[in-house]
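step: validate -> pass
step: tokenize input -> pass
step: predict -> running
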Amino acid sequence: MTIVHIRVINPNTTASMTAAIHHAAQQQASAGTTVSASQPDAGPVSIESHFDEVVSAVGVAEEVLKGEREGGIDAYVVACFGDPGLLAARELTRAPVIGIAEAAFHLATLVSTRFSIVTTLGRTGIIAEHLLQQYGFSHHCRRIRAAEIPVLDLELHPEAAFTRIVEECCRARDEDGIGAIVLGCGGMANLTREISREVGLPVVEGVSAALKLAESLVSLGLYTSKHGDLAYPRPKAFTGKFSELSDLALPLR
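step: predict -> pass
step: emit ->
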């Protein structure tokens, strides 16, 4: 049996959420797949704005570099629905790097011609809209809906958060003319089956989707291309707190 090691990176710094995402990924992993999880040493405790994403993207890149120094990691999953730092992470490794939003969009279109996104806060909807445009899925998405709950409420007030999410998913089912729902937050990773039972539609959650796509790419022998814009970054000088990145020797493996 081929042993595959997938590293799931939670771009925020809340350890309990990292543990929950790790558990959700492990539940979906195939026999022979080892799933490990990590988070940045510094950064936002949750990601709910463009600014949060910019800061967390640095942490994602640092976690990929750590993984490359460790060695033996076959693929990475960036477990935040904004896919922060995704292309930068792909520059740093030949291993596949999968963002959970991009993965969820792909899988949703395989089970339905139209889907809606149900996310946490309305202000993050524009981030999802930008990703839909960037990835070419805008015409598949009917609507981006928000349960208007802070990300950390998924852990601090789980019952109330679950109720709000289900209510919004039911509105999407009844009003949007869709066949599937995409959950717009990595912190919802452990709610998929329960929400699907309540709503009666396929519910696609990005952590599981990304994990399965990562397994598929590894099994097919596909890797991040180093021809073109995803080639390893050119060595150069960095200053200040990033000086340790100066003349970084890539590849590391």
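step: describe -> The chain has a mean pLDDT of 94.
step: cleanup -> pass
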